[in-house]
Fold:
Amino acid sequence: MEGFVIVEIVCSGDPPESEPIIRVQDLTKVFGHDPEKALKLHRLGRSKKEVYDETKATIALHNVSFEVMRGETFVLMGLSGSGKSTLLRCINRLIDPTEGKIEIDGVEIVGMDHEELRHIRRHKLGMIFQNFALLPQRNILDNVAFGLEIMGVSKDERNQRAEEVLEMVGLGGYGSSMPSELSGGMKQRVGLARALTSDPDILLMDEAFSALDPLIRRDMQDELLELQERLGKTIIFVTHDLDEALKLGTRIALMKDGSIVQIGTPEEILTNPENAYVEKFVADVDLTRVLTAKDVMRRPEPVAQCTAGPRVALHLMEEHDISMIFVITRHRILRGFVTLEDTVSAVKEGKNLSDILRTDVATVAPDATIPDILSLIVQSNHPLPVVDENGRMHGLVSRASILAALARKGGEA
Amino acid sequence: MELPKLPIGDVVEIIVDWIEMYFSWLLDAISTGLRVLVSGFEDLLLAIPAPVLIVLISVLVWFVTRHDLKMTILTALGLLLIWDLGLWELSMLTVVLVLIATVIALALSIPIGIAAARSDTLNTILRPFLDFMQTMPSFVYLIPAVIFFGLGSVPGIIATVIFAMPPALRLTTLGIRQVPVELIEVADAFGATPRQKLFKVQLPVALPTIMAGVNQCIMLALSMTVIASMIGAGGLGYQVLVGIQRVDIGMGFEAGLAIVILAIIFDRITQNLVPKYGSK
Structure:
């Protein structure tokens, strides 16, 4: 399959800075009465199932290590029971790890006393829950102000701040509503607002959008990306949905049975799955939503230079058996196209290419998704040029090239 | 062969004697305190002319039920009927006994209920006692109450407190334990102290369940004050008792009706004290 251009998917959001904000080292969590014994057995090579049968202890996390960079969205992904939610809860110590280290901003939080821990939780960490977890007896404003209330901020000040944040998540004016009066999407905006009110550096999001229906979920994902671009928080996002992980993640950690199987950018995970488990996971992904025009385009040829004469263009069209050809400048700026008929008459009448150039050409952006491209391509009987914001032509997409790319990626995964 | 009888009754008697011997000062103090409280409260209610009190209670119902006109009118009519039947003074004594017993029962059961919600051990220890308290026939409480406090309204209140406590305690524990895990995590994740968690998350979320316990507590207190009339606690129950003794169906029925009216008013007030979430 020569002629395909492989281009890196550039993720939305800023590239992560190099400084890690969270550092997790050899984290292990065992649920049960005798974690020592369970771990000893496990290190002797017993499987988790055998360990459970013998000690009734569950090894939820085993020797997990990773770093999260400041400003990135780090996605923990895995099936239920893979330990992703446990891992998230270890970071704010809702669950106490059995072994290992967790540093936040260079401060070790495992073994920290209650007072220090409360300080970290109040100022550095915000959490967003799967089922929203709004306090039912409080109105929206008081829910959003909850974190500040816990900190002892005065009522006027915390209400003012809560109003601002509600405005930011698009719920200005809902302050006096009760949680039960809101839809799921609105409730999760409140959940997001509540976490943002105390302006923490890190947001822990536990399956935050999983309880929402697909359309609302997509809106919320877009809004999170937008919010992230503006606020530059560090986000740890737990999900079981690979599409969501690929869309939101700067990097993704794929988890299985309490361990991280692979950490990488979405592109690395998709194109270079580290083992059979990741491959299998990736095989289920809806490629039409992950791939963009860049991934499915073919080399932009043949094309005619605008300085060339109509004879050259005619020759190229005859050679490739096509009825039109795109015309570009020396710097690959797309000028338009010429048809076979026009070119034949231009050769007879001695005209230039610029005389017969047609400029009413539909183009697609490099990051256009497949559904977007498909809606254009069905109306067109020739390939579509992929053109960036500077007018440069990067490639061509046709029905055949989309199908070929899907087949290739699908078969590879 | 005859099975030797275990001396459970004798043991109970010994314990009772022992308490009486060493704690009579405490029993006396409780007895005096309660007697003063009952008569003071009773005098206060009777000092207000019946029509004025009827209006006041109706207004209270009007506000508590969030302007339920039907209930307000029924309350006023019910109280007028009691007044008309000549049972007003007895009813006020019953109200005093019920309220004092309920306040004491709640002051004990809600804190213990909270403690039991936080400690599995305490919960396990309490469970058999609560089962015992709830299934033991209520008349049985009257016996030690009489032994320790003599006859009158004080032992009546004590027996009522014991009888009315278990549901309030149980529902407090249940309500707090039923607070969703995610809400507890919210409190912890946002850095709440244990105290903040209790007062800002657990108790408010558990409040509807706790209030159901309060409601049960009042209803049980009302039924127990009637039974307590057998040991000389006055009020409407005494009137029923006299009706039984004289086989006077009319007298018994009138007093019974007054009790039902009080029960309905107590019930509606306590049921509406906590707003239902979402429906304003």
User: Anything to note?
Assistant: Residues 1-16 of chain A have pLDDT under 50 and may be disordered. The longest strand of chain A covers residues 20-31.
